[in-house]
């Protein structure tokens, strides 16, 4: 076996896919898309270095492995890195050589950032490789499905504004509201929440436009949001409706599933009954809330959105308020993991 290394060239993706086959993990499938021609970061693309390892057999060069390191506009304090080696060429030093080369390339990143990060699944070849070369977990992420009715609905105090009782379906209507995904108020709290839960890997300063593009734009699939507000107060005393809405305590943004052009037309009737597909949601809270209030707000809004239908959410270990609501449900069987855990590892 004679291994040679060179920069990535157009067409390498097709050659490597023939050798690699299907990705070992969901993360591998995603990061394969990052393998591309190197860039100096001056053509509108992020700075990137991509290296291919070839096995030369009888004078014929066959790509068997590749590695890439690149800058990211979001979470700019570390560089993303990914390495994949064909199964029959693993444990031969190719991955170690690629990592050494990528670390050397990282020293020339325009940002001056040299720390690497990657995503792996526990108990996989990728996780073992990362551990062997000093990349340790800095975050754990899980996809969790919360079953309908897993949490008891919250009870909101009725209000009596000007002698008009508010009860039944209108109870809590002053604190639970639909909100347009383009709302500046929603964009502000979503951006600050995302920043607050990523102290372990700062996203940098997020503009209103960035928050919209990442979480609330139509292209993300965002198609609805509800918020849980603080009880509004009135400057004119009890019995007089307040002039302002309470501040947002928690939010839930729902996302439409990707359109499937091959899906069969929907049919009604018993024959179509089956497990309901969970709705993908992003749940968070006002970062300024204290821990107990944040946990209560997140639990209340989660109980509302998962009252009749299952929801799926991403649960990072840094999301302490959401963990307080969801982890007891995992223990009781009212929530379940949707796939394998993901670890973000870094040197």
UniProtKB/TrEMBL annotation:
Transmembrane segments: none annotated. Pfam families: Acetyltransf_1. Residues 3-158 form the N-acetyltransferase domain. Residues 259-279 are annotated as: Disordered. This is GNAT superfamily N-acetyltransferase. It comes from Pseudarthrobacter enclensis. The lineage of its organism: Bacteria, Bacillati, Actinomycetota, Actinomycetes, Micrococcales.
């Amino acid at each position: 076996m004679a291994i040679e290394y060179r920069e990535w060239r157009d067409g390498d993706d097709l050659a490597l896919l023939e050798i690699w086959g299907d990705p070992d993990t969901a993360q591998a499938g995603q990061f394969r898309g990052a393998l591309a021609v190197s860039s100096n970061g001056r053509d509108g693309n992020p700075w990137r270095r991509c290296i291919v390892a070839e096995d030369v057999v009888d004078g014929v060069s066959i790509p068997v492995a590749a590695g890439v390191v690149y800058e990211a506009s979001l979470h700019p304090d570390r560089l993303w890195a990914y390495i994949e080696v064909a199964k029959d060429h693993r444990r031969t030093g190719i991955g170690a050589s690629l990592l050494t080369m990528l670390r050397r390339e990282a020293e020339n990143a325009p940002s001056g950032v040299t720390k690497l990060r990657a995503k792996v699944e526990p108990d996989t070849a990728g996780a073992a490789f990362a551990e062997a070369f000093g990349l340790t977990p800095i975050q754990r992420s899980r996809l969790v499905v919360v079953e309908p009715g897993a949490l008891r609905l919250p009870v909101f105090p009725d209000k009596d504004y000007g002698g008009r009782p508010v009860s039944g379906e209108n109870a809590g209507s002053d604190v639970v509201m639909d909100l347009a995904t383009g709302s500046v108020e929603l964009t502000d709290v979503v951006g600050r929440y995302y920043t607050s839960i990523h102290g372990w890997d700062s996203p940098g300063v997020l503009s209103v436009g960035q928050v919209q593009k990442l979480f609330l734009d139509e292209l993300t699939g965002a198609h609805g949001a509800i918020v849980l507000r603080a009880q509004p107060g009135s400057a004119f005393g009890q019995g007089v409706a307040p002039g302002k809405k309470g501040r947002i305590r928690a939010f839930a943004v729902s996302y439409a599933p990707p359109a499937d052009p091959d899906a069969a037309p929907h049919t009604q009737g018993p024959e179509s009954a089956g497990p309901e597909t969970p709705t993908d949601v992003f749940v968070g809270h006002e970062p300024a809330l204290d821990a107990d209030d944040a946990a209560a707000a997140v639990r209340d809004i989660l109980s509302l959105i998962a009252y009749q239908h299952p929801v799926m959410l991403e649960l990072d270990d840094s999301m302490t308020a959401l963990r307080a609501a969801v982890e007891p449900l995992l223990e009781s069987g009212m929530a379940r993991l949707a796939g394998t855990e993901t670890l973000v590892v870094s040197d």
